[in-house]
Each structure stands twice: as structure tokens, then as C-alpha cells.
């Protein structure tokens, strides 16, 4: 099992460009999450999907959109990147009815 | 509002010694789970230990143990016999039950000194 995978690992964008961060899990988990990690801020939830077909906003959803493509995949899209979105992005998943999240390796995104 | 506070941004400990990382949280929920995650320089988030709020017994995983004080809303992590590989950022987190949203603290950077 690969667990939770994220692509790409690194990305540099110019202000105004768009991109999609991909996340996939092979653990048959129901819930998936997108976080951003900034120095001194810990992990902040952007969006989550409790189950296939549903998505909900987290603490910092502005400037982002998500798609739960199927049970395995949960993508995060930046339509018009801004320097404030420079961060490390983590995807996570957990099995419904349990409480433990499993994290991907993260994507370091820089917006110039 | 649900919040998690880690008041120690940085800590250090001598190899083989014991260190305790602090975490407090605020919630109106009675049932929840608490976690400590470790993030080494590789950036990977690794689960260290978890505690169920309805269990009074403190969780233990090898050299890692917690001191869970529900009334005080405190959840500290004790690392015994510290090793160089314990050098990492440590995050405290919780999830209310029922619920799907996790809440994280801002982290404590731990350095183990040889």
C-alpha cells in the first residue's frame, strides 16, 4: 500500500496562474482533507470531504476549490494563485467511524 | 470555538533525558480524541500517540506517554530516554466526536542534543 500520495512535491507559480494539487489514497478511507502549513501557524484546514460526493469548508477556504473525484482522489485547485498562498500543503485521509488521520508527504508551493 | 494551544514554540533536551511538551485545548464537547503528531525534517506527519477522552488511563507507546487531565483540558506528551531521532516538530491535535474536523496546535520544535 502506498498510503496517501500527493503530486507534485514542489511547485513554483507566478501570481495569477492556476494549478491543481492531486491527492490519492489506497486505504479505502471515507474522509479526506486538505491542510496548509505555515511557520508558526500549525496546520489549518482548507477543505474536507467526509465521504464521496460531499465537501465542506474548513478554517481557510478562500481562494481554493476542491473536487472529490471518487473515493480515492481529492484534488485542491488554486484558480488564481496569490503570494499569500505560498505554503506547504498536506492531504490526509481517515476511515469513517475511526479517528486517526494519515498524511501524505506534502507539496511545497511557492507563488512569486 | 475549538482551539489547541501549545505554549512552547521551542524546546531542547539532552540525549537520554526526559522532556515534557505541553498542550491545552478548549472545547465544549464531552467526547473527543487527542493526538500527538511528529514532523521530522522530512516533513512527513507521523502519529505518535492518541488518547480517547472517555478513557481515564493515560496512553503509552514505548518511550512516549501522555498526561491527560480532562478537567483542566490539558494533554502533555512525555518523551523518556530521548534519542537524536526524536528531533522534530510536535503537534497536538484533537477531533470532537461525532465530527470530521481536526484542530491542530501551532507546534513545538524539539531538539535533542547529543
Q: What multimeric state do the chains show? A: heterodimer
Mean pLDDT of chain A: 93
Low-confidence stretches of chain A: none
Helix content percent band of chain A: under 10%
Q: Which stretches of chain B of 5+ consecutive residues score pLDDT under 50? A: none
Question: What does this protein look like?
Answer:
The complex is a heterodimer of chains A (about 110) and B (about 110). Chain A has about 110 residues and is an all-beta fold. Chain A has no helices and eleven strands. In chain A, the strands form two sheets. In chain A, strands 2, 4, 5, 6, 9, 10 and 11 form a seven-stranded mixed beta sheet that branches. In chain A, strands 1-3-8-7 form a four-stranded antiparallel beta sheet, with no helix packed on it. In chain A, a hairpin with a 6-residue loop joins strand 5 and strand 6. In chain B, a hairpin with a 6-residue loop joins strand 5 and strand 6. The termini of chain B are far apart. The model of chain B has no long low-confidence stretch (mean pLDDT about 95). Chain B is an all-beta fold. The chains are: A mainly beta (about 110), B mainly beta (about 110). At the A-B interface, strand 4, strand 5, strand 9 and strand 10 of A face strand 5 and strand 10 of B.
Write the layout of secondary structure elements.
The complex is a heterodimer of chains A (112) and B (114).
Chain A: E1 4-7, E2 10-13, E3 19-25, E4 31-38, E5 42-49, E6 56-57, E7 65-68, E8 74-78, E9 87-94, E10 102-103, E11 107-111
Parallel strand pairs in A: 2-11
Antiparallel strand pairs in A: 1-3, 3-8, 4-5, 4-9, 5-6, 7-8, 9-10, 9-11
Chain B: E1 3-5, E2 10-14, E3 19-21, E4 24-26, E5 32-39, E6 46-52, E7 60-61, E8 64-69, E9 74-79, E10 88-96, E11 103-104, E12 108-113
Amino acid at each position: 500500500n502506498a498510503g496517501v500520495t500527493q503530486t507534485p512535491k514542489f511547485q513554483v507559480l507566478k501570481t495569477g496562474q492556476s494549478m491543481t494539487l492531486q491527492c490519492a489514497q489506497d486505504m479505502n478511507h471515507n474522509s479526506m482533507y486538505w491542510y496548509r502549513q505555515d511557520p508558526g501557524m500549525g496546520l489549518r484546514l482548507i477543505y474536507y470531504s467526509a465521504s464521496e460526493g460531499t465537501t465542506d469548508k474548513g478554517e481557510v477556504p478562500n481562494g481554493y476549490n476542491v473536487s472529490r473525484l471518487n473515493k480515492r482522489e481529492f484534488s485542491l485547485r488554486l484558480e488564481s494563485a496569490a503570494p499569500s498562498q505560498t505554503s506547504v500543503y498536506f492531504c490526509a485521509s481517515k476511515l469513517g467511524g475511526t479517528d486517526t488521520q494519515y498524511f501524505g508527504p506534502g507539496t511545497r508551493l511557492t507563488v512569486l | 470555538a475549538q482551539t489547541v494551544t501549545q505554549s512552547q514554540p521551542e524546546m531542547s533536551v539532552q540525549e537520554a533525558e526526559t522532556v515534557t511538551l505541553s498542550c491545552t485545548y478548549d472545547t465544549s464537547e464531552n467526547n473527543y480524541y487527542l493526538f500527538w503528531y511528529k514532523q521530522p525534517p522530512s516533513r512527513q506527519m507521523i502519529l505518535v500517540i492518541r488518547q480517547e477522552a472517555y478513557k481515564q488511563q493515560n496512553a503509552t507507546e514505548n518511550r512516549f506517554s501522555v498526561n491527560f487531565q480532562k478537567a483542566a483540558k490539558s494533554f502533555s506528551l512525555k518523551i523518556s530516554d530521548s534519542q537524536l531521532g526524536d528531533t522534530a516538530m510536535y503537534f497536538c491535535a484533537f477531533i470532537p466526536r461525532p465530527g470530521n474536523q481536526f484542530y491542530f496546535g501551532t507546534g513545538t520544535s524539539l531538539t535533542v542534543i547529543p
